[in-house]
Amino acid sequence: MALLSFLTQLAGATMLLLFAVRMVRTGIERAYGASFRRTVTAARNPVGAAGAGMIMAIILQSSAAVALLVAGFAVSGGLGFGTGLAMILGADLGSSLLIQVLSLKLDWLVPVLLAGGGFLFLKSSRRGLKQAGRIILGIAFILIALRFLRETMDPIRDSSFLPAIGGYLARDFITAFLTGAALAFVMHSSVATVLMCVTVVSIGALPLSVGMSLVLGANLGSALIPVWLSRGLPPISTRLPLANLILRGTFAFIAVIAVNRTPIVSYLPDMSAGQTLIVLHILFNASLLLTLPFCARLEGPLRRVMPDPPSQLDDVPMHHRSVLDEHALASPAQALACLRREVLRMTQVLQEMVEPVMNLYSEFSTSEMRAIRAKDEILNTALDDIRHYAAEMHKHEMPKRMRKDLRELMEYAIALEAAGDIVVKRLTSLAADKSEQSLTLSKTGLDELTAMHDRILQNLALASNVLISGDVESARLLLEEKTEMARLHRQTRKKHLKRLSAGSGISLDSSDIHLETANALKDMNSQIASLAYPILYREGQLLDTRLVTTMRPEHSEEE
Q1: Are 28 and 458 in contact (CB under 8 A)?
Q2: Do 426 and 520 contact (CB within 8 A), yes or no?
Q3: How many Å apart are CA 549 and CA 75, to the nearest integer?
Q4: DSSP at 447
Q5: Confidence tier at 559 by pLDDT (50, 70, 90)
Q6: By the 8 A CB rule, do 325 and 385 touch?
């Protein structure tokens, strides 16, 4: 029973730690995820990229999350191999620095964090403050989970169980190294794994030598996570996590031999066992930055091992081809699934149109504008095909619920086509006018519009998820994003008018361009978010009207 109680408490503390880390990351992604794209693609030199990766890993509390973001941007061509790998190496260092902060004895801060975070999350109506509350609560849960881990380990610290395991792992440091790698990979979080190792070693439950092998193994396991999660992506994105695995794995293997076979650890200043583990972890990841000048040179060997598939320029991309199947019309359920896939394809095409549109405001390109406008024809054709396909479906018997789903899909297809028209007829035209008239947006104004644009891209991805899953919570989040976009729109108008009042000549000349662009972005976001209305209305989470109900005055007979 004692062993069962220990394992149950250990599992509970570990799950709480994993949940808390994920909770913080989710809050940050929801509140600030739109700005990550700019941060990733803005880096140009290895040192700057490493710094950006370090900051993002501290914010997201995961170097693996940064690696996957970088891999995704590599597919779109927004990031080079050398810059991307430098960013991942910087993220590795960032996650190790985060452990230093989280390992501090901050138990006295837990009630304050719980009270403040709970108040913001439960009582705030603004989405940004609500997500800030989520982040603060997650940090409090991390501290609580670490305290639970210490309390769980205390009773067996003096038993024969852990010393026996510790003695075996101390004699066989390779097994300890592989155990740390397996723990990090299974938990999908090097932060949680290293924190757990630091906690166990700090209370004396395991010797320092075993802790060092476990932590270095956790670095190997952490590098394996993005390789596993990116296995379905094209070679151009898989090469980056694989290069990180080669560098980090090689350094980790050399380091584990060095700390167990040489007196290198004795050169560290005197400190507690737990702090020694953290310093070792930080120094290990900092040493990886010595490879920054050689990051770009790894691309050639990896490209030969993982070549890009032969390009077929005449082939139309898969998401530019209709997925409507005439043979599926005999089965209404299958036909409706085809229609849903076709609407999802429209969201992918719209994303391709939206992504580069703000580039036209900074560096106008006629060829890029024509490429965006050409894709609008794909949306128009898709909408026409959906109309004809739906008309054929109506010839077959369908349940009432299925007819309603069909109508909702058609309405959203119309909304996506309208969003495409906003890109083509308003945004690209405004960018062209700005270029022809040699107008310049103020840096602050352009940053405000770019923030709105980034938010739209994030909402478009969320809308795609809602389209597939029909999840009510995701639909609520999508509608909350519409409210947040309205707030951003009001904010940029207010700031723009203040700049005009202050006599800014740049803002005065480009005032119409700025205001009309902000209006267009807000309108486009409204079309994208319209998917949430039928889902929330069906679940009884949407009111019929936002007007306050009042009693109508009775008219007199004379009237």
Answers
A1: no
A2: yes
A3: 52
A4: H
A5: very low
A6: no
**Spatial distance between the Cα atoms of 4 and 8, rounded to a whole number of angstroms:** 6
- DSSP of 24-73: HHHHHHHHHHHHHHHHHHH--SHHHHHHHHHHHHHHHT-HHHHHHHHHHH
Residue pair 499/442 in contact (Cβ under 8 Å)? The answer is yes
Average pLDDT, the chain: 83
Exposure pattern of 453-474 as b/e (b: 16+ CB <10 Å)?
bbbbbbbbebbbebbeebeeeb
246-250: long-range contacts, CB 8 A cutoff, minimum separation 24:
246/298, 247/89, 247/288, 247/291, 247/298, 248/92, 248/219, 248/220, 248/222, 248/223, 248/288, 249/220, 249/223
Q: Which amino acid is at 554?
A: E
CA distance 408 to 402: 10
Instruction: Please say whether the beta carbons of 87 and 66 come within 8 A.
Output: yes
Task: HSE, CB side, 13 Å, CA atoms: give it for residue 276.
Answer: 20
User: How many Cβ atoms from other residues are within 10 Å of residue 28's Cβ?
Assistant: 21
Residue 467 has pLDDT above 60, yes or no: yes
75-106 pLDDT, tens digit per residue, is 655 677 888 889 899 989 998 898 888 777 77
CA distance readout (Å), 261 to 171, 211, 255, 275, 531: 11, 15, 10, 21, 61
**Cα–Cα distance, 522 to 456 (Å, whole number):** 9
Give the separation between CA 275 and CA 273, rounded to whole angstroms: 6
221-232 burial, b if ≥16 CB within 10 A, otherwise e?
bbbbbbbebbee
- Highest mean predicted confidence (pLDDT) among 33-37, 105-109, 359-363, 380-384: 380-384
Q: What is the full DSSP assignment across 197-263?
A: HHHHHHTTSS-HHHHHHHHHHHHHHHHHHHHHHTTTS-HHHHHHHHHHHHHHHHHHHHHHHHHHHSS
8 A C-beta contact, residue 177 and residue 213: yes
For 12, the token pair is: 């509970």
Helix-helix angle 190-202:273-287, to 10 degrees: 150
Q: Are 67 and 57 in contact (CB under 8 A)?
A: no
Only one residue has tokens 């560098």, namely 247
CA atoms within 13 A on the CB side of 430: 24
Greater confidence (313 vs 263) lies with 263
Lowest-confidence pick of 161-175, 344-358, 428-442, 524-538: 161-175
Here the tokens at position 310 are 């032969």
Report which of 311, 237, 227 is spatially closest to residue 77, judged by C-alpha positions: 237
Q: 166: helix, coil or strand? A: helix
CB–CB of 404/397 below 8 Å?
Answer: no
SS3 state of residue 552: coil
